[in-house]
Automatic annotation (TrEMBL):
Keywords: Aminotransferase, Pyridoxal phosphate, Transferase. This is Aspartate aminotransferase family protein. SUPFAM superfamilies: PLP-dependent transferases (SSF53383). Belongs to the class-III pyridoxal-phosphate-dependent aminotransferase family. InterPro entries: Aminotrans_3, Aminotrans_3_PPA_site, Class-III_PLP-dep_AT, PyrdxlP-dep_Trfase, PyrdxlP-dep_Trfase_major, PyrdxlP-dep_Trfase_small. GO terms for molecular function: identical protein binding; pyridoxal phosphate binding; transaminase activity. Pfam families: Aminotran_3. Its cofactor is pyridoxal 5'-phosphate. It comes from Natrinema salsiterrestre. CDD domains: OAT_like (cd00610). It comes from the Archaea.
Length: 446
């Protein structure tokens, strides 16, 4: 079919409409998108961009993947909505059964919603119902969403300004962020021991013996791509157990092949009590989910929770096709390409003082930019974060036709989270672009 080109729609026209008619929540807009395939975005003026960010880690099997699009179209022809919690229907039933197979350990029963935030909110309700306790602990620098419950767990005041009060009874514990940790030079075992001793201290000082859950991103995304050492998740589960609480793994961002396993928890040999999912689950169709062992899931009674759109059949059909693609080849590709990318980014860290740390797993990688001339940064542990440098690198890349994310708690991390179907050539172009961007910034004296 010939592509339609509406020459009256321009990039500026679209952003003007945004200014005029969308609420101004995101001032720093990225490239406008008219269409997207594989790892390529096209704007309204025919410019193409290499996508290294996947719409914030969502289109894991590539934009417009044939199998996913086909599955969604087939379901559109059948029916679009029946409310999963009123009318039993095939796609939700089949997907829930599939999730019982592909999620770790004894995770078995799923609740479907529409987003990551909702999956976290629902998981907290389930933990409270099952344990009969109320308090929740999350990680400093963690991100779990922006509704008032998930926002309370999000460990970053930048998201909370003017929005308090959120839900009560949430405390935060230091993240396993080795680069700026007082324990940065310890071996993995000692690092885990000390970081989780801090958690015990937080439980002792900030809670009232009424702990329902510890919530953790197995690999932290928005905080700046933070990968905890092996043993960390297992120790969190033991501590949760000791306090009669559940371990909730928020895999909204780290799930669905992103780290080179279907779920990041698999790297850590720890089965969470509840696993939250969204983003990559349906390759861009809105769907969220949380999955728990039957014993925990059955704590919910009829009416305890519901979602009108949750488990939408078109989204569930797309999710089934997405999981097939991830299992066929795409997760393995993430593992292979991620290992290569990791080495390339480590080389940049070795070469440039402004790259404080390269870190990541699979195709969830980050480069933390620092200003080595500005002395030590927070807590006197590593060089001062350099958010401006990271921003300039992101902008330079965009001018070269490459889309990457810039974020992290200090806003100084270049985030590379491309579609997991990306090939070596795409990554080579990305790495070369980053090198050029750093050189250009250094030459400009920034
Ligand atoms: C780990 C994690 N949890 C929850 C969310 C919230 O997801 P959503 O934006 O779909 O509500 C995000 C979004 O970035 C996330 O990274």
């Amino acid at each position: 079919m010939a592509r339609q080109t509406d020459t009256t729609v321009t990039n500026d026209g679209i952003t003007d409409q945004y200014e005029e008619y969308l609420m101004p929540i995101w001032k720093d807009l990225h490239v406008p998108v008219k269409r997207a395939t594989g790892c390529t975005l096209e704007d309204f003026e025919g410019n193409e961009y290499l996508d290294l960010f996947s719409g914030i880690a969502v289109t894991n099997v590539g934009h417009g993947d044939d199998a996913v699009v086909e599955a969604a179209k087939d379901q559109l022809d059948e029916f679009v909505h029946g409310c999963t919690y009123v009318h039993p229907q095939g796609p939700a039933a089949e997907l829930a059964e599939r999730l019982a197979e592909v999620t770790p350990g004894d995770l078995q029963k799923t609740f479907f919603c529409n987003s990551g935030t909702e999956s976290v909110e629902g998981a907290i309700k389930l933990a409270r119902k099952y344990t009969g306790s109320k308090e929740v602990i999350a990680l400093e620098m963690g991100f779990h969403g922006r509704t008032l419950g998930s926002l309370a767990l999000t460990g970053n005041k930048a998201y909370k300004a003017d929005m308090a009060p959120t839900i009560n009874d949430v405390a935060h514990t230091p993240a396993p962020y080795r680069y700026r940790s007082p324990y940065r030079d310890a071996d993995d075992e000692t690092f885990v021991e000390r970081t989780t001793a801090d958690l015990e201290r937080v439980i002792g000082t900030h809670t009232a013996d009424d702990l329902a859950a510890i919530v953790v991103e197995p690999v932290m995304g928005e905080g700046g791509i933070i990968v905890p050492p092996t043993g960390y998740l297992r120790r969190l589960k033991e501590i949760a157990r000791d306090h009669g609480a559940l371990l909730i793994a928020d895999e909204v961002q780290s799930g669905y092949g992103r780290t080179g396993e279907l779920f990041a928890s698999e790297h850590y040999d720890a089965v969470p009590d509840i696993l939250t999912q969204a983003k990559g689950i349906a390759n861009g169709l809105p769907l969220g989910a949380f999955t728990a062992p039957a014993e925990i899931a059955d704590a919910f009674d009829s009416g305890d929770h519901l979602s009108t759109f949750g488990g939408n059949p078109v989204a569930c059909a797309a999710a089934l096709a997405t999981i097939d693609r991830l299992e066929d080849e795409v997760t393995a590709n993430a593992r292979e390409q991620g290992a290569w990318l990791s080495e390339e980014l480590a080389a940049l860290e070795a070469e440039y003082d402004v790259v404080g740390e390269a870190r990541g797993i699979g195709l969830m990688q980050g480069l933390e930019f620092v200003d080595p001339s500005a002395g030590t940064g927070p807590a006197g542990i590593a060089p001062e974060p350099d958010a401006e440098f990271a921003k300039h690198v992101g902008n330079y890349l965009r001018e070269q036709g490459i889309v990457a994310g810039v974020g992290g708690y200090y806003k100084n991390v270049l985030r590379l989270q491309p579609p997991l179907s990306i090939d070596r050539e795409g990554l080579e172009r990305g790495v070369a672009g980053i090198r050029d961007a750093i050189d250009a910034e250094l030459e400009a004296g920034r």
